[in-house]
Structures are given as C-alpha cells and as structure tokens.
Amino acid sequence: MTTDSQNKIRKRRGLMLVLSSPSGTGKTSLSRHLVNDDKEISLSVSWTTRPMRDGEIDGNHYHFVSKDEFRKMRAADGFLEWAEVHDFYYGSPKEPILRTLESGLDIIFDIDWQGAQQLANSAPSDVVRVFILPPSMKELKRRLDKRGQDSETVVSKRMTNAYGEISRYDSYEYVLVNEDFDETYEHLKTIIAAERLQRHRQPWIGQFALDLLEEDA
C-alpha cells in the first residue's frame, strides 16, 4: 500500500477546540497564533450583530450581519451554537463546520461559556473545551485599558461580566492561566496534540489493529 493510500485510510476526524475566557485574557491572540502555525486547524468565523471594529474584515474576523438576518438563520436551525453577549448576538454556522470536521481538520471556537455548553451538548465527542484565566483581575483591567478598543463604560461592563464568566471555569476539561503568553501557547499546543491522538478520533485504528492480529511475526 502506498503512503498516499495509507494517509487517506488513516484520516482522523477533526475536533472542535473551544477557547473561552473573559474579554482581554488573550484567547483571540492564542487562536490567531494557532491558525498561523498549524495547517490542520482553522478559526470558525462566527456571525455577529456587533459593529465592526477598526482593522476588522467582514468574512475574516466575523460575518457582520443585522439582527434580522441573524434571527432568520437561527430560526432555520443554521447555527451549532449561538449566544447573546454584551447585548450582541454571536453564532457558529453549522454547515461549514461539519464539512470541515468530516474532512479531518480542526476548528477553533472563540466563544463564551454559553456557546461552549451548547456545543458540548450537541457534539460531545467532537468538542475539547479550554478556559483561559487571567493572572489577576488587576492585570485583566490593565490589558483591557491598554487595548484601547472600548470606552470606560464598556470596560467597566466587561470587568463586571468577567466575574460571572470566570465562575464557569469548572465546566471545561482544561484550564490555563495566561500569565506568560508563550508558555500558555505551548501548553495549548500540547493539549491539541494529545486530543488528536484520542482513539475515537482515529476511526481507522480498529481495523488496523485487527489486521495486525492476523499477521505472522
């Protein structure tokens, strides 16, 4: 059997990597680094009703839509998960995600605990959840201020919401404290490597083991 044939037979099923954290903790930067470094993983491009920020590109960072468009998609069961966060809707479109998993590639979800729970309920064997904690609340506030994307009122609201979001950490399989970005990133890559080797994500392994048992030494 050729190497190409073996690779086709041994194709694994993709996984859904969920990263959640309070705003400003670093999950978006971690996601972007993974996508740049790993050809087998891509970022789920969510639909959102929030306004586009400076530097964002429609269809790249998010699909920016009206609330009416979002509600129509939701009514048609077009999202794997959706949530209302900071007064805006966010949702993960179902069809492109399922196609990606079946092709053997992984998808990162930069979503909150509500979306993570919906994904875990609908596809428990495909989902790997990682919660990112800040090293301290003071550091989280500093990062939000330094980012300069939001008004003082919005930053204050994000800090208030952070306490509720952090309280959900114990529903995740993995928890990382993002004090040093490079160290956190290495830990995240280790998690992905281990999860890709889970037996249930390698559908070819059962037949391979049976074939070994029939071979002569």
Descriptive account of the structure:
- The chain has 217 residues and is α/β, with parallel strands linked by helices.
- The chain has one domain (12-200): P-loop containing nucleotide triphosphate hydrolases (Rossmann fold, 3-Layer(aba) Sandwich), CATH 3.40.50.
- The chain is 45% helix and 19% strand.
- The protein has nine helices and nine strands.
- Strands 2-7-1-8-9 form a five-stranded parallel beta sheet, with helices on both faces. A four-stranded mixed beta sheet has the order 4-3-6-5.
- Strand 5 (79-85) and strand 6 form a beta hairpin.
- The radius of gyration is 19 Å and the shape is globular.
- The mean pLDDT is 90.
Strand and helix order: HEHEEEHEEHEHEHHEHH
Q: Please identify the structural class as seen in this structure.
A: alpha/beta
* First-residue to last-residue Cα separation: 19 Å
| CATH homologous superfamily classification | P-loop containing nucleotide triphosphate hydrolases
Overall pLDDT = 90
Question: Do you know the CATH architecture?
Answer: 3-Layer(aba) Sandwich
SS summary, helix count: 9
> Rounded to an integer, what's the Rg over CA atoms?
19 Å
Share in helix: 40-55%
The major pleated sheet works out as: 5 strands, parallel
Report the CATH topology name.
Rossmann fold
Strand order of the largest sheet: 2-7-1-8-9
Strand segment count: 9
- The level 1 CATH classification is Alpha Beta
Tell me the number of structural domains.
1
Q: How would you sum up the global shape? A: globular
Which percent range describes the beta-strand content? 15-25%
Flag low-confidence runs.
none
